[in-house]
Amino acid sequence: MTGLLSSQTRPSLPSSFHARTIHSQEGAEIYVRSGGSGPVVVLLHGYAENSDYWAPLAADLVKDHTVVVPDLRGIGRLIDAGRQAMTRKLKPTIFAPL
Prior knowledge:
This protein has helices spanning 55-61, 90-95; strands at 18-23, 29-36, 40-42, 66-70. By secondary structure, the chain is of the alpha+beta class. The termini are far apart.
């Protein structure tokens, strides 16, 4: 398909982003990357994607925003110890990095 990026050619988040694994109150490990300074913007990927999906937009936003990009439970680099459904535990996953 022309115009679509394959997983091999998809760009990564800016190299200035810092990666860390945090622990939610529910015991899940959450892989999150963040960078920049200014108003906070949280970018959430959809199903079957990971935080790299946002690389082009994050590269632009990081110029004047703090950009926070977590991998959601069960997708990407996130380890969900309880194997809970992604949508049931979405709120703690989103707010834990903040």
